[in-house]
Amino acid sequence: MQRHAPVKPLWFCAACAHGWPCRQARAELLAEYGTGRLLGLDMADLLTEATADLTRLGAAPDPHHMHVRFLGWVRKPTR
Ligand SMILES: [Zn+2]
To answer: Is residue 30 part of a domain?
Structure first.
């Protein structure tokens, strides 16, 4: 069970109220997924969902900021 879960559609953290994924959520996700491509794929889906939610709420986020927030901390898979 992930305590630092996103509160949708505003995408802040349920535990610490920072923008999701907060530092702790990132650590939990990295621990849960380990290395590999799945985390990046899932975070890309969540990035799309969050961008759509925030845009619908009239708070269209900066695409570069969102990319860094959702994917900037995900380790690239090694080939
Ligand atoms: Zn949190």
So the answer is: yes
Q: Which structural domain range is residue 50 located in?
A: 21-71
Domain for residue 3, yes or no?
no
Total number of domains constituting the chain: 1
Measure 20 CA to ligand 1 centroid, in angstroms: 7
Q: Measure 4 CA to ligand 1 centroid, in angstroms.
A: 4
Report mean pLDDT in 10-residue bins for the chain, 79 residues: 88 97 95 85 97 96 96 78
In which element (H, E) is residue 6 found?
A: strand 6-7
